Amino acid sequence: MGVYDGRRFPTEGQLMNLQADDATQTRRNGEPWRAEDGSVLNAHGGCVIRHDGFYYWYGEDRAGTTQEEGLPYARTDAGGVTCYRSADLDAWTPLGHVLRTRRDAPHHDLSVDRVCERPKVVFNARTGRFVMWLHIDDADYGKAAVGVAVADRPEGPFRYLYSLRPQGRDSRDQTVYVDADGTAYHLCATDGNRTLLISRLDEDYLTLTGDHAEALTDGWFEAPAVFRHDGRYWMLGSGCTGWEPNAAKLTVADDVLGPWRPLGNPCRGPGADLTFGCQVNFVLERPGLAPIAMFDRWVPADLANSGHAWLPVASDPGGVVVPWSETPSLD
Fold first, then answer.
1. Choice among 1-10, 23-32, 203-212 with the minimum mean pLDDT
2. E strands, 61-114, in order
3. What's the mean pLDDT in 194-214?
């Protein structure tokens, strides 16, 4: 994909190279970003939480060599989950890995030969612990499960507990949402991405209750990102085209369990028909301020050089929209 120019996606060779010693360059949406120490900011498919005055950005480690030959999808070795900390959502300090994968246990859920994606971390105010849910899979995406890990501090380390299939069903792209009353929900693409499954979590956020609902049947909806705005629940997501971009999808509901009503593509501006060459991974709610939609711009031939895009969500008479901007804006 690379840098979107409003007409087409350049080849891998045209992807803008970052200078290793330029840690202060202006960030541009769609390109790789850098942390305070000058390293490439490597946190994909993840989320941001705020705790005790700091923001914590969790994401997939995609720094390994991209493998394509003989595989249905390009992949890197499962690199675990990285974390960065910031006081202002702008300058990010790398904290290293908060959940590590393993090379010594090929049958373990966290083996480097498997899949460790879409980490979502939430804080449980009742237990005082941080809980991570993430997509756990085999290299051929046959396991289709979620993993659960827990930590006493936002910077980890997280202790991996187990994997499961929600309500006994396959689970691939997934997220966790905590409502204002503290009730948490797990949402995942199931039935081979045909359906969205929504399950209420127990009070400890570590297990599922039996309370669940289906949404968007035959909607082919993945990468769900839920947020509350203007008194309603909204969910951004994408279609199912692997690493390649497609038109974003927006749905709305009055309750997290639904029903969810599709509204079409909320993106506006050059490249909106393909979500600016990106895929949503999370929407950060900010009381009194516009939510921030976080995107990955995947580079299938070189996943380590995949970029980021942060775009504020704007109110609109028809719901909400996500307008494109060249640089990330926190206003």
1. 1-10
2. 81-86, 93-99
3. 97
Which residues does residue 252 pair with via DSSP β-bridges, in sequence order?
Answer: 234, 261
- Tell whether the torsion through CA atoms of 109, 129, 310 and 200 is positive or negative: positive
Distance between CA atoms of 72 and 56, rounded to whole angstroms?
33
What is the token pair recorded at 25? Answer: 């360059």
Coil, strand or helix at 44: strand
pLDDT given for residue 25 in this prediction: 56
- 195 pLDDT band, cuts 50/70/90, is very high
Mean pLDDT of 57-65: 96
Residue owning tokens 């790398």: 94
Strand locations in 182-313 (E): 184-190, 195-201, 208-215, 222-229, 232-238, 249-253, 261-264, 267-268, 279-286, 289-297, 307-312
- The set of residues, in sequence order, having a beta carbon less than 8 Å from that of 222 and lying 6+ positions away, is 172, 173, 189, 193, 237, 238, 239, 240
Closest CA to 79 of 93, 61, 102: 61
End-to-end CA distance of the chain: 28
Both tokens assigned to 4: 């979107």
Does residue 70 register a pLDDT over 90? Answer: no
Query: Which DSSP letter does residue 25 get?
Result: P
Partners of 249 in the β-ladder:
237
Per-residue pLDDT tens over the stretch 252-301: 999 999 999 999 999 999 999 999 999 999 999 999 999 999 999 999 99
